[in-house]
Design a protein that fits this description.
mainly alpha, elongated, transmembrane helix
Length: about 70
Amino acid sequence: MDSATFLGPHAVFIVTSYAVTTIVVVALVLWVWLDGRRQARLLADLEARGVRRRSAEAPTTAPATSTPVKEPAA
């Protein structure tokens, strides 16, 4: 059975749509993968230069406690 007869009169449109979708999905996966590698290299470079995340540091002082604010009586 020929694919054109199997897919009907819109076979070219259907095959083209699947091909374009496949190319776009592969391009997005490749882009995310390459960007992840780039970000990992940038992070390693920052860590090699001694730059650290602020959240990784232990707090040096106790956090300030807040006192509740009283609303003025109306």
